[in-house]
UniProtKB/TrEMBL annotation:
It is a multi-pass membrane protein. It comes from Mangrovivirga halotolerans. This is DUF3817 domain-containing protein. InterPro entries: DUF3817_TM (IPR023845). Residues 7-92 form the DUF3817 domain.
């Protein structure tokens, strides 16, 4: 993962955003079953920041790499589905980064 490229940074944020989304599976029961809201607040703030960064980097990648409508839609949709960003990383982002490496 090359963090100097738009795609590399997008991949990193996608993975972090996916992890933050899945952490809600731990923090939501803590909040509502055990009356411990603090972890949910922290994860919620981190997830909100990462979600905005994901959308920004997704739009940047869509325009930079001139992705078609289907790919663009799937990349944006993935941010709304738990574990969707992991699927997108494996199916779209990693192969796209590999193609870029081979073209250099």
């Amino acid at each position: 993962m090359n963090l100097k490229s738009t795609l590399g940074r997008f991949r990193l944020v996608a993975i972090l955003e996916g992890i933050s989304y899945l952490l809600f599976a731990i923090t939501m029961p803590l909040k509502y079953m055990m009356d411990i809201p603090q972890p949910n607040y922290v994860v919620g703030m981190a997830h909100g920041f990462l979600f905005i960064a994901y959308i920004f980097l997704a739009l940047t990648a869509i325009f930079t790499y001139k992705w078609n409508l289907k790919t663009s839609f799937l990349v944006l949709l993935a941010s709304l589905i738990p574990a969707g960003t992991f699927f997108i990383d494996i199916k779209i982002l990693k192969p796209e980064e590999q193609k870029l490496k081979e073209s250099l």
